[in-house]
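Note to self: the last two entries modelled the partners one at a time, which told us nothing about the interface. This time every component goes in together.
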Amino acid sequence: MDFSLSKTQLEVQEKVREYAQKVVAPGAIARDDSKEFPEEIVKGMAKEGFVGIPIPKEFGGQGLGYQEYAIAMEELSKVDAGVSVALTVNTSLYGGTILTSDATPEQIEKFFGPVIRGEKIGCFGLTEPSAGSDVAGALTMAVKDGDDWVINGSKCFITNGPVADYIALFAYTDKDLGPAKSMACFIVPTDTEGLVFGDRHNTSGIHCGQVGEFYFNDMRIPNENMICESGEGFKLAMKVLDSGRIGVAAQALGIAEGAFEIAKEYMKERVQFGKPIWKNQYLGFKMAELEIDIDNARHLVYRAAWERDNNISTYGISAAKAKLYASDCAMRVTTDAIQVMGGSGYMKEYQVERMFRDAKITQIYEGTNEIQRLVLSNALFR
Ligand code: CAA
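The predicted structure of the combined assembly is written out below.
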């Protein structure tokens, strides 16, 4: 058993850490206030090769794995989860859908190549007003018409949606069979006629991440944009989420680590009753417990990524555990980071209150933690 990172993993960690500290960290507070999408940074991360970390070299990626990708997500999320969420959607949700589907090498180059190179942005179109946790409640439907599909319906809570060039769109094709048995997947350029951008959602956290809705009114998509046949789309979405949850788990881990470091530094400097506040046993012990909590989360995240890279069939289960634990850990750590810093923790300039708001969504997206418990309990008793 070896718990150390490999030479390549250490190099990825160092490169992404440097980028996160130099390029991402300086504007984090301003971006939280302005809620503006950091297009230059998001496309810049792709140009640095971050989107392509776990993508095979033949498709223009770095040919590394989910372990290196998790490390990258962790480093970026230490400073700004609003930025890292755009990476995880591009890589593991949008790209993951294409690579896990039946897409041909030509379709992969056409639809994912520009995202890997930082020319375009992708998003994952699964959730609908009637289909959040219950994916089979989807209403968006595709009907074959000659060589095209005509799609009607809507999607909501789509991260990257308002700025996306492409959607990996899930729609079902047979009224009698219903979504679970007839779902398909299409790549839809967002300038397609019949596609209407809806509202950009006003979120509690991840302010610079863009989350929105789409409406499809008799939108025509050529058959050549279909990447997953009718009937296989539901399982495709489930498989993509099995991997995607590793990205969210790593994001939550990074948020926890970022908030922990800020609180730790503050506690060394802040003097009350004639001593640095960490010397109050209650506060010092609290930090010791949080550090164990973060260690537990890190081991779960890295193990899920390692299982994914080594084709171990339980990686989806491990990803659910990692996502559930790390996101709950991020809430515990950010909540306590505010508390141990007192009034300062509640101030925007110390950043832990932003991290607290950002942490909350990691308990919700890519499957609420209740859904993770459902996945885990089903696996236990199957
Ligand atoms: N891999 C492969 N196949 C799977 C699977 C998996 N992980 N999970 C289920 N399946 C298969 C089942 O074997 C079954 O196949 P058969 O019909 O051949 O038997 C089929 O899929 C249906 O499975 P279930 O009966 O278990 O389906 P269900 O309707 O009960 O739902 C669920 C299962 C786990 C609750 C699922 O709906 C789910 O994961 N919900 C959460 C959705 C989610 O995570 N949404 C996140 C949206 S994306 C997002 O958040 C992005 C963002 O903003 C960043």
